[in-house]
């Protein structure tokens, strides 16, 4: 084998198998990280998920039950995103509507959900599904927390190639409060991740209207559907 002496000029010769060895080390590290990530998510499901389900059946107050359901929903969404499970637009909206009905029923608040019959049903990737769901949930949470409404109206419609999602309450509109909290800043960041925009204005019901608009992905037939995934274990379904 030809030797290379450090005092000689020129770069050190590289063995033919050194690049392959470096790639193999990177692959081994990536696989180890993925395995550790899967272990953490399995622990979340087996431990935290089962404890939350037990808590759900033990608490008696409707508001406490709803809070546990929301945490379970968050956990299922995180696991779905980790597994790369896709969902369609209508599936995400149905899940959001179901949760909204449960939350408002416990407070005797009317929900007026208006959804266009011509809505397409494109596949949303896990991140898009989570951003849309979280924005909708936070809009409803803010209305319940700050407006003390008797009625909540949700309008979902297609405008051109965009989806428009609006939440309006009949409480009091406070312009000074808009944008001052962590929740609204998070909604703005999520809208940006959807390549869209979100704004707040005085609503036609007397309270606040939250308006989200973002471009819809092309309508396709998903290879894997269900958000949260239909394959999620029963122990994760409240």
From TrEMBL:
Known catalytic reactions: ATP + protein L-histidine = ADP + protein N-phospho-L-histidine
InterPro entries: HATPase_C_sf (IPR036890), HATPase_dom (IPR003594), Sensor_HK_TwoCompSys (IPR050482)
Entry EC number(s): 2.7.13.3
GO-annotated molecular function: protein histidine kinase activity
Entry annotated with the keyword Kinase: yes
Record-level GO BP terms: phosphorelay signal transduction system
SUPFAM superfamilies: ATPase domain of HSP90 chaperone/DNA topoisomerase II/histidine kinase
All copies of domain Histidine kinase/HSP90-like ATPase, residue ranges: 129-217
Superkingdom of source: Bacteria
Record's keyword annotation contains Kinase: yes
Pfam families listed in its UniProt record: HATPase_c (PF02518)
Main enzyme class: transferase
Keyword list, A-Z: Kinase, Transferase, Two-component regulatory system
Protein name in UniProt: histidine kinase
Species of origin: Arenimonas malthae CC-JY-1
Source taxonomy: Bacteria, Pseudomonadati, Pseudomonadota, Gammaproteobacteria, Lysobacterales
